[in-house]
Amino acid sequence: MILPSDLAMVPFVSVDNMLKLVNHLGPRRMMADMVDYIEADFKRWETFDKTPRVAAHSLEGVIELMPTSDGALYGFKYVNGHPANMKRGYQTVTAFGVLAEVANGYPVLFTEMTILTALRTAATSAMAAKYLAPNGARTMAMIGNGAQCEFQALAMAEVCGIDTFRLYDIDPMATEKASRNLLQQGLTVVPCESPEEAIQGAEIITTCTADKRNATVLTDNLVGAGVHINAIGGDCPGKTELHADILHRSDIFVEFPDQTWIEGEIQVLDKDHPIIELWKVISGQEQGRVNDRQITLFDSVGFAMEDFSALRYVRDSVQKTGHYDMLDMLADPDDPRDLFGMIQRASA
Predict the structure, then answer these.
(1) For 150-172, how does the pLDDT look when each residue is reduced to its tens digit (9 = 90+)?
(2) Which of 33, 41, 169, 235 is catalytic?
């Protein structure tokens, strides 16, 4: 419990403590619980400040800030995306985040978000699939077996009951890595040698590739009636994964349209193309899946509100488990007007 006397100290969840938290609660439980938090926030979507993320693009990648507030709490995430990093021995994506009280502006949580982003991204995918995937779906094709792959699979297993995962990546070593990790989690894994092979018998198709370009990971002839597609790899201008014809055959569901039109698969469509906001499905204002031949497409780019939900969840979880340190990061003199005096007293 954080006491009033600790208000100048900020709870900090380091990478080490995040790993302890995930292993303490279990990744499957964490993502299932996170679905509840994200779903609850989507149901009160209209109470949030919403803006597309602030992005600084370069030839190497992108650095982004993702802020939002519900009027009581303010949260933001700093995140980068650099596809070439893997070849240089760095992570493709790293992140950290802050949650603060609107009333006084004081942060109440500072946390790593590289691991947390992977958890919340998978939780968001599973939440969407609850509403959009075919009833009784048991098999998912995962095209792109990088850092996000295992999280997506475990979330789908826990939340949606998927038990078989057909994996494909242009790098066989990535598929081998993902297969090894998922087998240790007790899931059925089928390594595949092509996207065509991977999607055979799959009711859910998830694409999660890293190249910063307009790619065609899935062609129109590969997508049959009745499937649900999670397109989560396209997340910036000029980066897509699906042939445009797939979009024309699908009912498309998005997070925040102002952001998705810039970054998502729909950036290749005319702005009058019909899309459905996912929050309206979750709140009962719109329908999700309506028949067994419908192709549903979740054009996911990641939105600040999902990070806000994840930050709320971590704040609540670490208070119960103690997996945090107190960080001295707020200069808070006894007399708020005497900041310089604080420096003098420290020298003495």
Answers:
(1) 999 999 999 999 999 999 999 99
(2) 235
